[in-house]
Amino acid sequence: MATHCIVIHGGAGTILRSSMNPEMEAAYRSGLKAALEKADELLHKGGSALDAVELAVSVMEDNPLFNAGKGSVFTHDGKNEMDASIMCGNTLKAGAASGLMHIKNPVRLAREIMDHSEHVFLCGKGAEEFAQSRQMQMEPESYFYTKQRYDQLLEIRDTGKTQMDHSAPAEKPSEKKFGTVGAVALDTYGNLAAATSTGGMTNKRFGRVGDTPIIGAGTYANNNSCAVSCTGHGELFIRAVVGHDVACMVEYGKRSLHEACDEVVNKKLVKLGGEGGLIAIDRQGNAEMIFNSEGMYRGIKKADGDFQIAIYRD
Ligand code: ASP
Questions:
Q1: Which of 69, 73, 105, 75 minimizes the C-alpha distance to 208?
Q2: Dihedrals φ, ψ of 257, to 5°?
Q3: Which end of the chain is more exposed for a tag (fewer CB within 10 A), N or C?
Q4: Which residue's CA lies nearest to atom 7 of ligand 1?
Q5: Quick one: average pLDDT of 28-52?
Q6: Domain locations in the chain?
Q7: Does 234 sit in the ligand 1 pocket, CB within 6 Å?
Q8: What is the predicted pLDDT for the residue at 162?
Q9: In this structure, which residue's CA is closest to atom 9 in ligand 1?
Q10: What residues pair up with 196 in beta bridges, in sequence order?
Q11: Contacts with 312 (C-beta within 8 Å, 6 or more apart), sequence order
């Protein structure tokens, strides 16, 4: 039986120890741990990589510390517009949704679109109507509100600039960080999957869509190469087609997973000015958690018991 593994991220950016207190750090770590443990348990029982990434992401969507589901950042207009996607590396089936305002777990809607519609990507009203027709859990706009995120919007609303989740205003760029969530997994059948979910960027225009729901950019999975989930400045990740580029380097370029991730995150993205990171896994169980920012909330749990959670570079 192949070994199984789950890797997650809770966003990348400049996460300074000085701006983190021990309680906050413990809360982030326990949020990551809960997601890893649930997904690992599912994989351990013979569950699929697809179910594992959906579960891990939905656990983080329910945690207001992360910029996805409850706790999503606000648009310029003071609304939450969420994006998510999921992809199966075995079948290359995928589902994605954007501009969601009432879906409790956007990643579950992405999965539902993949499994129960003839489409890959639904947006806005059409996506929410589809969710209703599938009896998915909807919430009023107030459910997604958190004071911390709203304060972040008020700080920069009049600057005309968008900002990554948890970022400090432009004068304090050293505190920048991203809070999108994502997961990649390998199951005992040797299949790969990836999922990503986000509220996007604070002060974004309404209707703005980042890399998260775009298959091949923020999320990609293919058993021939690897599964990838990204976090960072979405516009640059779209332009660099990050997920697919990593997979292509592995499949056609015959590069190791590490080399491919390093090239994209530390060279190509840096050249474009794209701050952020990604997690990736291949069928041999090689896993990467790589970022060009100061830190990235991240964690990994393998079948052999190997278990790590980290935030900073060390
Ligand atoms: N990639 C996300 C977006 O641009 C933001 C993030 O990763 O925090 O919407």
A1: 75
A2: -60, -40
A3: C
A4: 231
A5: 97
A6: 5-312
A7: yes
A8: 74
A9: 200
A10: 85, 182
A11: 15, 17, 294, 295
Distance 179 CA to ligand 1 centre (A): 7
Can you tell me the distance from the alpha carbon of 282 to that of 247, in angstroms, rounded to the nearest whole number? 9
What local confidence, expressed as pLDDT, does residue 14 receive?
A: 67
- CATH classification (class only), 5-312: alpha beta
Q: 251-296, pLDDT tens digit by residue? A: 999 999 999 999 999 999 999 999 999 999 999 999 999 999 989 9
The one-letter code for the residue type at 225 is S
Residues annotated as catalytic are 180
Based on its alpha-carbon atoms, the radius of gyration of the chain, rounded to whole angstroms, reads 17
Residue 210 in contact with ligand 1 by CB distance below 6 A: yes
- The answer for residues whose C-beta is within 8 angstroms of residue 295's C-beta and 6 or more apart is 12, 13, 14, 15, 177, 311, 312, 313
Q: Find out whether 136 and 170 touch, Cβ atoms under 8 Å.
A: no
Pocket test for ligand 1, best of 205, 206, 211 (most atoms within 8 A of CB): 211
CA distance 109 to 105: 7
In this structure, which residue's CA is closest to atom 4 in ligand 1?
A: 234
